[in-house]
Amino acid sequence: MHGELSLIEWVLTGLVGLFVALPITLILIYRIVPPPVTSVMMLRLVQGESITRDWVPLEEIAPSVRYAVIASEDNQFCVHGGVDWSALWHAAGAEMGGSTDGGASTITMQTARNLMLWPQRSYVRKALELYVATLIEALWPKRRIIEVYLNIAEWGPGVFGIEAAAQYHFGVSARKLTSNEAARLAAILPNPLVMNANASTGHVPRQARTVHRRIGQLGTLLDCVRP
Q1: Rounded distance, CA 196 to CA 213, Å?
Q2: Which CATH superfamily is domain 37-225 in?
Q3: Residue 224 — very low, low, confident or very high, per pLDDT cuts 50/70/90?
Q4: Could you give the CA distance from residue 18 to residue 141 in angstroms, rounded to a whole number?
Q5: What count of other Cβ atoms lies within 10 Å of the Cβ of residue 83?
Q6: pLDDT for res 2
Q7: 3-class SS string, the chain
Q8: CA 212 to chain centre
Q9: Cβ–Cβ under 8 Å, residues 64 and 179
Q10: Residue ranges of the domains in the chain?
Q11: Taking 60 as the threshold, does the pLDDT of residue 102 lie above it?
Q12: Tens-digit pLDDT profile for residues 26-72
């Protein structure tokens, strides 16, 4: 009948409503409650990995970790609104030119991806990532974003969160990590399933030195996560 929604229209409307409401609901809950599991953790379980993870509050993580991760992954974390649009447009232009270097994914976007999406690149995932990251930035303070990110990031096969990473790579708690160990952990974030935080040569020690240098240069750009 004219003016009434068909079954297909009802289903589509419901799916759109679910797509809009579910991320908002989960993000509001996770502002207070530690996420019990993430989409990447579930993927690893399906792939046969065992999961190691211990949630720790930000106050129980060495401050050098948050500085190192920002210096390595997202220098503008404290000042952008979840998406670094200039870096994103630059990366999109580079991709159209054949480059696959990336480099435009902020910590907020990585939090969105690890928490609710999937690791494989696609335009659909990127669009969803931008949407969820914008919601996270609007609903969480910066300190909550970095706290959740550090607790859900993957730092090795089945190794999730900074506490498990500290124990796995260095045999210490997240509270006891040195600045050098923090820089090395930040250095392996782009490819934690392959890179070794204890490597004596190659990318990891070079990147750790770069991270140390950047931390000294960031100054007030680290103010939003200082103790």
Answers
A1: 21
A2: Biosynthetic peptidoglycan transglycosylase-like (1.10.3810.10)
A3: very high
A4: 25
A5: 18
A6: 47
A7: CCCCCCHHHHHHHHHHHHHHHHHHHHHHHHCCCCCCCCHHHHHHHHCCCCCECCCCCHHHCCHHHHHHHHHHHCCCCCCCCCCCHHHHHHHHHHHHCCCCCCCCCCHHHHHHHHHHCCCCCCHHHHHHHHHHHHHHHHHCCHHHHHHHHHHHCEEECCEECHHHHHHHHHCCCHHHCCHHHHHHHHHHCCCCCCCCCCCCCCHHHHHHHHHHHHHHHHHHHHHHHCC
A8: 20
A9: yes
A10: 37-225
A11: no
A12: 999 999 999 999 999 999 999 999 999 999 999 999 999 999 999 99
Amino acid making up residue 54: D
CA distances for 42 relative to 35, 97, 116, 151, angstroms: 12, 34, 10, 15
Angle value at C-alpha 184, between 226 and 75, nearest 5 degrees: 45
Query: What length is written for the chain?
Result: 227
Average pLDDT, rounded, for the chain: 89
Task: Show the tokens assigned to 88.
Answer: 């994103």
The two three-digit tokens of residue 20, written as one number: 């809009």
pTM of the model: 0.89
Tokens 């809950």 belong to 29
List the one residue out of 190, 24, 173 whose CA is nearest residue 107: 190
| Distance from chain centroid for Cα 196 | 19
**Residue 75 neighbours by CB under 8 Å, 6+ apart:** 214, 218, 221
Confidence of residue 84 (pLDDT cuts 50, 70, 90): confident
